[in-house]
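Hey, I'm writing a tutorial for new members on how sequence and structure tokens pair up, and I'd like a real worked example in the thread rather than a made-up one. If someone can provide the structure for the chain below, I'll link this post from the tutorial.
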Amino acid sequence: MRISILAAVVFLCLGLTTLARQQQQTQTAMTAPKGTTLLFREDFKAPKPAPSPGVPGAFVQSQFQLTQDTLGNPDLELKLYGPGGKPGTGNQSGLLLSDEADPSDPGTILSVVWSGVTQGPWAVLLRDKNIYLDMRNTARIRWRIRPRSFHQLRPMIKLADGTLLVGDYTEPNSTYFAVMELYFIDIPRWRIIDPKTMAESRLKEGEPLWHADVDLSKVDEIGFTDLMGGAGHGAFGGNVAVDWMEVYGNPVKR
């Protein structure tokens, strides 16, 4: 009799363990991160640089105003914010698309977004005409960048409701261009930004400045900023440069 009771208890325990394991597996499957895909890439291509006269193989460095026409992806719209995002004059002010030699790959001419002569805080954002971006789970940005001096490159987004946010995350400074990858889940909090001034803002009186619970399921625009004006021309002046940018996430129909 005691053996039968003991056996029943053992079988009951095994059954409960199996049920618990099945429930755990089901819950894990339901909460597992959703796979992400490449939503778009932008290479910021400037017109082909002109050869340097009298110097075989060399090119004249050229700089152009960053405009919609300088985007290579036809599905994207360029959105510029802040006083530094306003159209500038020649190569002396404004956000520029700059042609320059790549020291890490001799003979290669890069076309990069460059903030060196911006005359105030700025932001460069890209908007896909066909989709919103779901930037949850394993969503990320992959880009080739070169922040310099005190200019720290930060991710920036605009939600479908119009809220403009900058992430509490900065990429490290680099002498040369480096490929970096940023998972949005690693951004601890966000701050609302005024699109005209690029200063911290509140949507409502009493609302906290920092937001750790931002809903990233429907992002309208995505890009970058350093929240500063440029330090002028010169190789070691304070600025950021972005060679190309890839966005991975899930598409949401507009």
